[in-house]
Amino acid sequence: xxxxxxxxxxxxxxxxxxxxxxxxxxxxxxxxxxxxxxxxxxxxxxxxxxxxxxxxxxxxxxxxxxxxxxxxxxxxxxxxxxxxxxxxxxxxxxxxxxxxxxxxxxxxxxxxxxxxxxxxxxxxxxxxxxxxxxxxxxxxxxxxxxxxxxxxxxxxxxxxxxxxxxxxxxxxxxxxxxxxxx
Length: 182
Hints:
19% of the residues lie in helices and 33% in strands. With 182 residues, the chain is α+β, with helices and mostly antiparallel strands. Strands 2-1-5-6-7-4-3 form a seven-stranded antiparallel β-sheet, sandwiched between helices. The longest helix is centred in the C-terminal third of the chain and has 13 residues, at 119-131. It is globular, with a radius of gyration of 16 Å.
């Protein structure tokens, strides 16, 4: 159990668990509603990075091909979500991934194209390729482009008792160093 700084059980909003999930997790599920299969919601496994190892920003960046529905429809309808789980980190022990004490979070917002020639585009490239080095060798003719999730809402479960309140500002400005995690 952790304390009011956002840990499990009782008080706190789960700041630590939310940041741990995105800052150490590299592959998860992106979902959106769009033109796929008549507008039905669609989930896809995607790789992401929020910065360099040990120094994440909390804002997920992606390298997506427009040959895939995720990027194709994001260019038409930016509404999207990214779900990450602590289970992928191996810190849940033998617990089932659905167990509420194994943190899981859904970031909802707009999946926006990042201009490759901008400072943010260079950051996205460096951050993604530092965690996913094989990406730099993916075929140019597949039209891979950089995207980011502009977060508008956060749904976090990190203990029994339902969703934990967590604002985007709290999530983005939480300092992992305070807890000795980074």
